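Researcher: I'd like a structural prediction for the single chain below. Treat it as a standalone chain; there are no partners to consider.
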Amino acid sequence: MGEPPLVSTYSIAACDLERGQWGVAVQSKFLAVGSVVPWAQPQVGAVATQAYANPRYGPDGLALLRQGLPAEVVVRRLTDADEGRNERQLGIVDSDGRAATYTGSACLDWAGGRSGECYAAQGNILVSAATVDALAETFEAAQGTLAERLLEALAAAQDAGGDSRGQQSAALLVVERDGGYAGLTDTLVDLRIDDHARPIEELQRLLGLHELLFGKTPPAQLIKADDALRAELRYRLDRLGFQRLEDWASVENLEDRVDGEELLDPVVLDALRRKS
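Model: Treating it as a single chain, here is the predicted structure.
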């Protein structure tokens, strides 16, 4: 049997300790890179494994992180035990935001990584070191949610050169304790573009949809319904053939943003106006 396909890519593993979120963003000239590279568990850490990737670094790395070991020690434990370490690349962020990145001596140029507070950025077969520099510096400066910051860093890395072989797939994974669907899962965001000419742009589009459908508007931004707004709701719902806002919202997958008709989510109101 020959060598497995090379996951030449750039990635960033990171966390937002204030929000209690950990995640990974990745892009590669490789089919369905999201099935191999990103791993994360809330309050534990995040792992990115690539190059001649060892997928066991994901679950094994998280298991070591659950023991309370710092990122640097976990990287050393994983690579010391792996005879193929020279062809591996790895980035880890632990539960306290400590980060470490590893690039084996046999990884193809350009290959390397940078780590800082709450992030580890790395890449191989890149146009130049500028890709990893863009990942790190953009993440450090970016504002917003962890998912938004990760994608901003990924886009900047592509603009700086990216994978020297081109683009094919990208993925974004963010976890938060009970932060996912209906509060019953830890997976806050899990989006994958498996084969696309411009995967990062498509991933950005999907994140926008994700925020529309599953995001939460701060209570202070909710709109109190007055008589005029209630009349508008009745008119627009009648045009669409619905008696209740909740029924229309469920068809549009916006039900999580509706709690009666006295306090309205501006996202829901905007969508209703556009549809009617």
